[in-house]
Amino acid sequence: MVEISGWMLDLYEDARDGVVIWFLDDAGRRRRLHQPFPVTFYAAGDEKQWLALEKFLAEQPERVQTGQAERQDVFSNQLVPLLSITVEQPAALHDLFWRVNRRFPNLDYADADLQLSLRYAAQTGVFPLARCKMEVDSGGRIWSVECQDSPWRVETPEPPLRVLYLEPDCDPHHAMPHNILARMEARTIRLALEPVRPLLANLRALLLDYDPDLLLTTGGDGWLLPWLLEQAESAGLQLPLNRDYHESVIRRKERIYFSYGQTVYRGPQVHLFGRWHLDRRNAMLWDEYELDGIIEVARVTALPVQVAARVSPGTGISSIQMLTALRSGVLVPWQKQQAEFLKPASDLFSADQGGLVYQPVIGWHRNVAEIDFVSMYPAIMVFFNISPETVSPPREGVSLVPELNLSIDQSRMGLVPRALAPLLEKRVALKKRLGQLPAWNPARKRFHRRATALKWLLVTCFGYLGYKNARFGRIEAHQAVTAYGRECLLRAKEAAETLGFEVLQMYVDGLWLRQEGLSSPEDFQPVLEEITRRTGLPIGLDGVFRWVVFLPSRQNVRRPVANRYFGVFQDGTLKMRGIAARRRDTPPFIVDFQEKILFLLAGKEDPRQALPEAVSLLRARLADLRANRVPLVDLLVGQKMSRGLEAYRSPSAAARAVQQLEQAGKIMSAGQRIKFLYIRGEPGVIAWDLPTPPQPAWVDVERYTRLLVRAAAELLQVFGGDEHSLQTWIAGSETPLPLPGMSKPALPARQGYPLGSLAAGW
Amino acid sequence: MFSRVAFCYPGYMTHTYLSIPSDSPFSLVVTPYIAGGEDIFELVARLALAGALQVVDGGNTFNAYRVAILLRRSIPDPQMALRRIALARVFTCYQMEALLVDRLTETQPVLALDFLSTFSDENVSLMDRWRLLRACTARLRQISRRAPVALWVRQRQNLPPENEKFIQYLRRAADKVWEFEAPVPVLLQPGLF
Amino acid sequence: MRFRRALRRSDQLALDDLFDAAQKHLSAASYAAHTLPFEVFLLAMLLEEHKQVIQLRQALEDLAQEDHGGDQRLDA
């Protein structure tokens, strides 16, 4: 028997070995360990059926133990008598439960479909990538486990992971690649795809020699790994993608589903055993937080890394809640059955509102502070104890939610607040740590990515509360959160106005404030304190804008719309929302152009002085466009298909591109992003991934010109450069440009209106 | 006392008022998917004017603003009548069953809107859906012995065949069935906004 | 809306103006959670109209003062 310490990399069920654990010990060895790990689920309901169920279980091939138990039901807050069913091999649970449920559909089940990693974390404290100590015998069996880590630690030691990066030299959806680039540490190897045998032999040698912990690919789920596996099979060669030879690679098929009213496309997946496979294309939010973020998600949710990378933040939140339930002996119901309370239809008017949005004062403003509630909705859930089991129809002596006929029980802490509180605290701690690190410190990036991963989990936890299939969800809890959100925002507005500020915009959890003569961050400290005093929630200064422009709606210049603005903070950071550069369908050429214009505007003390330079830039870009100097990839429009092709009545540009792809034999599904170019003549578009590449001469220069001018006008109109003026200026270089300061802004910064005097007049 | 409440249903094609006699209190109204909503809200408003009512919404179709406007045609302040409507929405067929069995009282009329919507969720096994549908129907029949019950079912296109079987099942269970066929196909004018 | 349709083109534009102005208070209107939202919407239109009146009144007073001041200077 030896004692080893190191990192737990991965775990999964094995048909014979109970749970298999991959362990990276401090000597750098990767070890396959195993441990018997019986798992338990529960049946509740009609006790007369229990006897029959026990008889049925005795006839099943699996080794099962049954007993009587009592566990807590979160909704009734009572102990429920249960039949506990313990299965010796965790791998057998899924099939057994399926048969049980089929035979006894009228019983209620709990703890029946939990990820093994959650059960393991709840029982032993050990989660993916945790530092731990284990006692192991020579056969690799674990006899004892001691966790020396906590998912809530801010400073975490980094495990020395070996990463092999595989990337085809071009997008296989576009054209068949010729090579695979294999990168590890500082080395890059180019492997030709043809002939196949040497490729497979080389790859095999690489896998065995370098023995990576992580196979990081571009398109490995959708194309590369399935292709390699098929080639290996037809060549009769072994390709050790798995480190664990006992298991075979798992391939999940692609699927399309509806989530929050959106069509979501999830590509096929390839999961490995003994090492991880992550596909940058298929990893949730990879661009936002990369591997550091994925590891953070795995640590706090206790989901295996390969799963954590591919699931939505909603599943992550659900895992944290289940883990909290498991740890505190609360049942995790198999099917959620909590319907809404019956309530008078007159209550409906307040209940279903979202966050409060105050339309901005259109135009250009200087010295504006943006202040945001820190993770507002999660903070509300924790601060006001909002959880599915604490919310009830109005009850005598229990505090009411503002605007709503709902009570919240404050006598016990709810499951959701219990699950969220440490997450919220950790995010704040990470951000604080981030603030202490100097800008040059490379650790900043890691902290930032981890904080971003937590932000996504926190952002989702609110929506998840109202999700129909959430185990610990309830619509009323969701409604209570938005009601408190509106109340807090209104109190913040009142606090700001009392202190003499003008509120330029409010958006769900943020306020934009201005007061004559105030510009330094310290000037805004008192209002932050007053808001926290009135709401109980932490609020922070996001920054003071040197200037900010609130834009009107695209369709109607007189109509303000929320959250469409751009501006520059005092430290020079740009911020933009709702403009072309932020939309995912905008061609890179235009995104880059808008960013450059913003940069020009930000560079001047008075942004109007940048107008001549901005117009020259526009001219230069138009010249590039006309001379075909813009690479075609930079002109690509990328739109998401929201429904199947047949559902489009008059085919949009995206639908026409899809038609072309389908004619070329490429099947696209709803939810996938389509890339295409605008070209001259009919049908006006050409899909990007067609076998015959488009020619630069086909580009619809007129159309891109319009898009470019519109993108310029979006930013410049407030400074006097609306679409019409821009057209005139670029048409004749003779026309003198307006001198800075002389032109009247098309949309003058409007003076704040004395609403107070209005109210007094009523 | 509720046996005197008649369900009035204005057919959107015939514009004749249909009433459901109190001796056949379990009614089923089948309409095409796109039609029916307005008439159902009219029915809700009428019933709310007459007394307390329980509404179970399976497809998130209830439009309180619409009902308020309809009520305003008869009374100056719709609030009071709206308070007489006890409403709950359900989003899964498990919730539907839990609501009907545990929460509804047997002494007030029940109106179930878009009743089958949650039963076309393919994430729930067909066996479970049948089991829950039978349980729901049994419960509704039980309530209908003391207070009128009406189900509104919308016929969707492109649905798996079991859905038609669900409707068949309800047709057999109901005392009275109102079927409304799709109007003569007219070109649908696309919305302006 | 049938009312709008039956209006003269110039009146339609004026009506649209009223609606656009009221849009600013959409959020406050929905927060009010009134059973008949259109009534609140009418109030929002009235509010915007009244703001215009105050603004115009102010502008007029400023103008009058300017004239007055000018006269004084002439007198001097």
Q: Could you explain how this protein is built, in words?
A:
The complex is a heterotrimer of chains A (762), B (193) and C (76). With 762 residues, chain A is α+β, with helices and mostly antiparallel strands. Chain A contains 20 helices and 31 strands. Chain B has six helices and eight strands. In chain B, strands 5-4-6-7-3-8 form a six-stranded parallel beta sheet, with helices on both faces. A two-stranded antiparallel sheet of chain B has the order 1-2. Chain B is globular and about 50 Å long. Chain B starts with 6 loop residues before the first strand and ends in a 14-residue tail after the last strand. Helices cover 87% and strands 0% of the residues of chain C. Chain C contains four helices and no strands. At the A-B interface, strand 19 of A face helix 2, helix 3, strand 5, helix 4 and helix 5 of B. Strand 19 (343-344) of chain A pairs antiparallel with strand 5 (85-89) of chain B.
Write a concise keyword list for the protein shown above:
heterotrimer, B: 193 residues, alpha/beta, six-stranded parallel beta sheet, two-stranded antiparallel sheet, 6 helices, 36% helix, 21% strand, disordered N terminus, C: 76 residues, mainly alpha, flat
Task: Give a brief description.
Chain A is of the alpha+beta class. The longest helix of chain A is centred in the middle third of the chain and has 24 residues, at 475-498.
* Low-confidence runs of at least 5 consecutive residues of chain A: 258-262, 739-762
N-to-C series of helices and strands of chain B:
EEEHEHHEHEHEHE
Helix content of chain B: 25-40%
- Shape descriptor of chain B: globular
